[in-house]
Description:
The chain is α+β, with helices and mostly antiparallel strands. 35% of the residues lie in helices and 33% in strands. It has a six-stranded antiparallel barrel with strand order 4-13-16-15-14-17. A hairpin with a 2-residue loop joins β15 and β16. α2 runs antiparallel to α3. The mean pLDDT is 83.
Amino acid sequence: MDRIIKKKKWTTKKVLLYSLGSIFLLFVLYLLFFRDKSSRLYVEKDYMSFAKVKKGDFQEFIPVDGIVFPKTTIFIDAISGGNVEKVYVEDGAVLMKGDTILKLVNANMELRFMEQETRIFDAINNLENTQLNLEKSKFHHLNDIEDLQYKIKTATAEFNRKKTLYDSKIIPDKEFEDAERDYRYNLKKMNIALELQRLDSITNSKRIGQLAISMKRMKTNLGMLKESLDNLFIKSPAQGKLSSFSAEIGESKTAGEHLGQIDLMDGFKIRANIDERYIARVSLGQEAEFRFSNQKYNLEISKIYTNVKDGAFQVDMKFSGDYPENIKRGQTLQLRLKFSSPQEAIMVKRGGFFQETGGNWIYVVDPSGEFAIKRNIRINRQNTEYYEVLEGLKDGEEVIVSSYSSFGDKDKLIFK
């Protein structure tokens, strides 16, 4: 007997069709609203460098190379030119003040010295003879006055005697007048001699003073000539170590030529070259430091040379305390020139990422360790080890610090 078979409402085909439609609809909704639209790149984790963001004391500084120099240096130059006749010491010798370093010979100078010495001696002799003649003239005047005084005494006595006889009418008028004339003549002559002696005394006094000045000048010139010859002996101006010295017998040295220097044993200083970009930020008393034999030493800027050469300027630094015992002149040291005191800050290690990002963003590793996300940051100061981060990172986060040159500008890095 036939029976009616009811048609199924949910057939397998229909269920399958609706299921596929629902899945498609969900997929469309995912694509429209839930799918991660950020750009991504799959990368090898082993080829990247990672660093932890940390919170600590940050100090801004730059590395500079410093060269060790003696604290005090005295340069030795040839005052007079000549040929090297004898070398008494070698470079590096420790000298006392006045020790002879070398001797120069200059035949022309020695000949000129002898000629000028002869002329000066002749001039001095002439001056001395003139001075002697002036003294003789003085005594001649004194002798003449003595003679006149004797004649006046004689004439006075004769005049008084004749006057007595004349008053007694014993002698004639002529004899008395002759005695009176002779007496008055000698008095007048005496007054003239005294005035002449006074004038000569004033004149001679001036001339003797001028002669004394001339003789002193002549002797000074002679001393300078002798000193110029003495300058052919190059001597140490102070106690210290001779350096930068080189001379060979027979070698010619010109006047003013640098022969060497004396390094005084009173300590050392450091001379450093600094990039001209920092010239406005460098000041006297600014601190620096370096490590030597596992010990830290402190310095401070004592002198700034403002002239810029090859994009750098120089400074001299003095030790704030002790200096290393084994330090040597000419030694190069790696210094840290400080621009700030230590301050607490968020820091990230320096790396190649900065060249591509300019410090504006960085890849931060997800806590799962499976991927890294691009994040905007703000970097302020820097030193040779760290960047100071003002915004965008937290203490303990992990970031990629190696170069981003192969990543392009992807928002997400997925580790393989």
